[in-house]
Amino acid sequence: MSRxxxxxxxxxxxxxxIDLMNRLPERSVDLVFADPxxxxxxxxxxxxxxxxxxxGVDDAWDRFDDFASYDKFTREWxxxxxxxxxxxxxxxVIGSYHNIFRVGSILQDLGYWMLxxxxxxKTNPMPNFRGxxxxxxxxxxxxxxxxxxxxxxxxxxxxxxxxxxxxQMRSDWLLPLCTGSERLKDSAGKKVHPTQKPEALLYxxxxxxxxxxxxxxxxxxxxxxxxxxxxxxxxxxxxxxxDLAYAEAAxxxxxxxxxxxxxxxxxxxxxxxxxxxxxxxxxxxxxxxxGEVLFDERRRWSARIRxxxxxxxxxxxxxxxxxxxxxxxDGGVVGSIHSVGAAVQGAQACNGWTFxxxxxDGMSLPIDIFRQQIRAELAGE
Amino acid sequence: MSRxxxxxxxxxxxxxxIDLMNRLPERSVDLVFADPxxxxxxxxxxxxxxxxxxxGVDDAWDRFDDFASYDKFTREWxxxxxxxxxxxxxxxVIGSYHNIFRVGSILQDLGYWMLxxxxxxKTNPMPNFRGxxxxxxxxxxxxxxxxxxxxxxxxxxxxxxxxxxxxQMRSDWLLPLCTGSERLKDSAGKKVHPTQKPEALLYxxxxxxxxxxxxxxxxxxxxxxxxxxxxxxxxxxxxxxxDLAYAEAAxxxxxxxxxxxxxxxxxxxxxxxxxxxxxxxxxxxxxxxxGEVLFDERRRWSARIRxxxxxxxxxxxxxxxxxxxxxxxDGGVVGSIHSVGAAVQGAQACNGWTFxxxxxDGMSLPIDIFRQQIRAELAGE
DNA sequence: TTGAGGGGTGAATCCGACG
DNA sequence: GCGTCGGATTCACCCCTCA
Lengths: 381, 381
Hints:
The structure is a homodimer of 381-residue chains.
Chain A (H helix, E strand, L loop, with lengths): L10 E4 L2 H7 L5 E6 L24 H26 E11 L4 H11 L2 E10 L15 E8 L11 H7 L8 E4 L23 H11 L5 E4 L6 H8 L3 E6 L2 H12 L6 H5 L12 H6 L8 E4 L5 E4 L5 E3 L19 E3 L1 H9 L6 H4 E5 L2 E4 L1 H13 L1
Chain B binds a DNA duplex (19 and 19 nucleotides) through loops.
Keywords (chains A, B): DNA-binding, Methyltransferase, S-adenosyl-L-methionine, Transferase
Catalytic activity (chains A, B): a 2'-deoxyadenosine in DNA + S-adenosyl-L-methionine = an N(6)-methyl-2'-deoxyadenosine in DNA + S-adenosyl-L-homocysteine + H(+)
GO cellular component, one term (chains A, B): cytoplasm
């Protein structure tokens, strides 16, 4: 859980994010969430330091200069972030069409491996006042692993599915802007930060791609939404922010956050982390008996249970299965519930737990219900 | 209207699109729509949960050695496209996270000026079978002008607004994949092209950013969706396609398209925003009465009209609706015709005007007919 | 005719623990 | 690090069959 590295956990460090990241230990952070500045230089006239206007020398070159400096900045902070990410770490960036294409390209050039681009669809975007374009109603996030080669990354599939009415979470997220009481205001009622992100956005990001106790670093901490949500969700944060006023506002904001209880946070446990139950256990415990015959749901194939927890299936199709006598070895496929299920179907793989059924009281039941029964017993102990 | 330049109008040229573009006169084309290879980097096979194989895009034209070679290709075709665009021309590109960030960056480097990035949200995307990522449920389009300095570009604001319930068209478009009878199949029933785009997508693109008679060039013509929609909408097309089989299929497809009448096209183009009619107006005018019950077309859901022009629907399904007494607040969903329609269906959005029906003389009529009636009155005044 | 149900399929960077 | 193998994993829509 990364308490080893002397990380400045649950703190905001004030300074240049590239410098600060370069001083942190490498491979120490689970996630980076970044909301970098958009390339604001692209707007109006380009002025020299003495305020004279750069005149039509070569617009393309000027543009290249603008983009080049933004690209250089982007390469630097993304490189620094990659150094401090753990091998199984990941990174999120958010941006708009002004900068996200530069960021995405550079990400890929640096060896990050894209997992998804995610669209934040705004319920309440600013309209296009002049009627010259489509209402710019979304922003783009990129979710990427530290590298293509890395073994694993965190994705809490079940939690995301639960958040989305028990259907897979899609790559387009409909969320309102940060307004109302969530929006930080100063004593004069002026908004503290121009681009404060909604907590719901970070909630989804952190819930999807971190586990409780893990460390998320935000190099452009701003008003501290990342920290506030991390604290609420039982994650640790490191905030980097150049502007002291922002950092102080964020600090106060986070201090007021009440963390969720551990029970609430762990509520959704992934299926794939449930304890493994060998099929043989079902036989050992007498839930299934050696010699019993299993069928697929539509009774196209059958297989007989052997005492060691393997199955044996006849070679061709077999509509009735049994009646071979008791221990006869009639030259069939032998193996695990999975491999025999795959073999009879001629498939590459098969989940034997859901494929094979057994008859009880005239009903056809998947053998997985016996596994669930054993898991329930294990959980109760 | 560009009949000056000896362009190969309404034709498909077979060959390398960069060569072909370089042979066309410069500044001769109004719009470029491009659906370049995405540079997917697929590993082995992907199996569905039922063990069937996903028919992925493994065509030679989508394989590049590395990002550098993809970038070089992208720079070349985008440069060639820019040369043949008129000074007030524009370009659309579509892509996915695999390539769109490279394309977007290079666009900007070459001097194109982004107007919007547009998200095509798919109603029916392929699920993520392994549960390892978010469902990749969208693709990204970039709409850009030839240069930042250009005076004008075409944007049919009113037509877009009319297409979107009289509200500004947003940058996220919800459209289904190209399936069913629209999808080109060969005599064996196999899809002709692996990535055929839906006509509705091109319809919106061309309606938004071209005028009748203008020329749209598609350098990756494929199955010819751009040409088919251009012909239907009274635009001219130039298709460039390397693969002769694709070109022939596209040719046949386009020949079968029946162009809309000029009157229809002009109507679309000139369509003024129709006056907004609040639902409450129908109640005010007595066309509908408070307490009346609305149904969806198939009478699966119902809602009662309240005096203020909102609806109230019972929480669960309700086949008969009424008989609650007059002003009772029996704990249902309350809101606009649109929000209640969405809520009862569990949908994110709903056009209440076409969703809700009312019974008149034993017939079920959409409430939109009353809006039309009021609009007719307003137009007559 | 209509409805229920089964099968097919779409631009996809789609596994990981354990020995 | 690599091979083995257990076993987890899908949504909307269209078409067809059959009752």
